């Protein structure tokens, strides 16, 4: 069974996700690699979407990902797992917002959450010409 040891560890240490749930989705067979696990790149893209939704709300409109800190994939994600991405603010700059995104999964037919990876994603608030703008500027949300 994938990741059972870490689940037990999470329960024992009572580790909980940090931040606001931004994306929750079901993993599908089309997202697997040649080993039958979910592609790390697919997980990364879901985390980027989660951070983009979170930063879009905070920055009142469009944002673009400018940087992603090094990440460690702690354990594999399987088909049928439910991926949950939680976001919290690490740093607010003038035009940028750094967001910690934690990825957790609920294993297929189980109930406990297991942390699979986390990373800091930085977004820049951009205007309609795709130029940086203040994260506090009020833009039309489109
Ligand atoms: C109710 C509302 C709901 C809304 C709901 C929305 C939902 C929406 C869902 C979308 C879901 C899909 C989301 C996919 C998200 C992409 O896929 S975005 C695509 C990938 N990213 C790109 O193509 C961006 C390409 N880069 C660029 O266009 C330009 O670099 C940018 C972003 C316009 C920035 O321009 P620049 O001249 O390079 O920026 P610069 O002035 O040097 O620096 C800007 C800020 O970034 C910081 N920065 C620069 N380099 C770095 C670095 N390496 N590390 C950290 N920070 C850095 C600077 O310090 C500065 O921050 P501040 O000090 O102002 O706070």
TrEMBL record:
PROSITE patterns: HOTDOG_ACOT. It comes from Halobacteriovorax vibrionivorans. InterPro entries: Cytosol_ACT, HOTDOG_ACOT, HotDog_dom_sf, Thioestr_dom. This is Acyl-CoA thioesterase. Gene3D superfamilies: Hotdog Thioesterase. Residues 17-129 form the HotDog ACOT-type domain. Keywords: Hydrolase. CDD domains: BFIT_BACH. Pfam families: 4HBT (PF03061). Belongs to the acyl coenzyme A hydrolase family.
């Amino acid at each position: 069974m994938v990741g059972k040891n870490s689940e037990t560890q999470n329960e024992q240490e009572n580790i909980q996700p940090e931040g606001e749930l931004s994306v929750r989705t079901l993993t599908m067979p089309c997202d697997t690699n040649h080993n039958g696990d979910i592609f790390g790149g697919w997980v990364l893209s879901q985390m980027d979407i989660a951070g983009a939704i979170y930063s879009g709300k905070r920055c009142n409109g469009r944002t673009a990902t400018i940087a992603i800190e090094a990440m460690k994939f702690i354990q594999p994600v399987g088909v049928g797992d439910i991926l949950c991405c939680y976001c919290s603010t690490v740093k607010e700059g003038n035009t940028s917002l750094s967001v910690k995104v934690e990825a957790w999964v609920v294993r297929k037919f189980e109930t406990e959450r297991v942390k699979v990876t986390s990373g800091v994603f930085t977004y820049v608030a951009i205007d309609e010409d795709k130029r940086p703008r203040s994260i506090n500027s009020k833009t039309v949300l489109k």
